[in-house]
């Protein structure tokens, strides 16, 4: 679990802007040319990532790629990036980039800078601790209730999701790890049957993954330790060992707040 220790002030981040299995970049003809938007400067900016984009929705592709770049630290906290400059690197127009950035602004990952673009938010340890506290209020009671009511066979079905976090951690792929981490948590909470709770928890989880400013990238060893927590929790849930489940879940959140 991604918040189990005070050692992780920076959440697991993406090692690349798109999964390694994604094929070559897709360009949108004509309208995909970079549109220079009045007032948005493209010079003297930090280099932005050149991701691999391949999905039906251009906006969705760009949003996924930008999220990965943010978590991986390729988009630097405090720096301003314009939609035309990012669009040029993605091989698309500025419009889908701007739309994706607006969504990221809603999520708190970036801030709109009028006539310039978007500044990557600079977050501190206090914000991370507050997110951990809110997540704990939501997730801890639900997980403990599920530990008492869900049959072992249903927990066994989540084994591939726990294994996916281990596989991503083993190669130090922060991008895949962050996604698989959220997928595992989401699948656990989904067993409660409350879709609204799952959506709120996922939003909080995603926000907690944005990196803090001026912090080193999460080490591979730390990813491996978190992945081991997933496996240990799942083993305890399958064995219906409530004492171990409670210890693991509470340590995860209280550790994140320290």
Mind describing the biggest β-sheet?
3 strands, antiparallel
Kindly state the percentage of residues in helix. 55-70%
Radius of gyration: 19 Å
Q: What would you call the shape?
A: elongated
Largest beta sheet: what is the strand line-up?
1-3-2
What are the secondary-structure elements, in order, as H or E?
A: HEHHEEHHHHHHH
Proportion of residues in extended strands: under 5%
Distance between the termini: 15 Å
Number of helices, counting only DSSP H or I runs of 4 residues or more: 10
Pick out the low-confidence regions.
Answer: 2-39
Average pLDDT, all residues: 79
- Write down how many β-strands occur, each being a DSSP E stretch of 2 or more residues: 3
Multimer state: single chain
User: What is the SS-derived class?
Assistant: mainly alpha
Précis, in short:
By secondary structure, the chain is mainly α.
């Amino acid at each position: 679990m991604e918040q189990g220790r005070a050692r992780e002030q920076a959440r697991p981040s993406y090692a690349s802007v798109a999964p390694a299995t994604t094929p070559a970049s897709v360009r949108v003809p004509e309208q995909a040319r970079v549109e220079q938007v009045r007032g948005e400067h493209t010079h003297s900016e930090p280099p932005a990532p050149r991701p691999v984009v391949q999905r039906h929705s251009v906006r969705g592709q760009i949003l996924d790629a930008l999220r990965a770049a943010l978590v991986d630290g390729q988009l630097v906290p405090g720096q301003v990036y314009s939609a035309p400059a990012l669009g040029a690197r993605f091989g698309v127009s500025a419009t889908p980039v701007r739309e994706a950035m607006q969504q990221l602004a809603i999520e708190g990952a970036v801030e709109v800078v009028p006539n310039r673009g978007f500044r990557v938010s600079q977050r501190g340890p206090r914000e991370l601790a507050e997110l951990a506290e809110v997540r704990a209020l939501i997730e801890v009671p639900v997980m403990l209730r599920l530990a008492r009511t869900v049959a072992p066979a249903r927990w066994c079905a989540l084994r591939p999701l726990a294994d996916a976090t281990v596989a991503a951690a083993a190669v130090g792929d922060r991008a895949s790890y962050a996604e698989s981490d959220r997928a595992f948590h989401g699948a656990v909470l989904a067993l409660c049957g409350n879709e609204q709770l799952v959506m709120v928890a996922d939003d909080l989880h995603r926000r907690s993954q944005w990196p803090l400013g001026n912090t080193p990238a999460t080490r591979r060893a730390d990813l491996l330790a978190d992945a081991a927590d997933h496996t240990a929790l799942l083993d305890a849930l399958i064995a219906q060992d409530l004492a171990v489940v409670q210890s693991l879940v509470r340590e995860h959140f209280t550790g994140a707040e320290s």
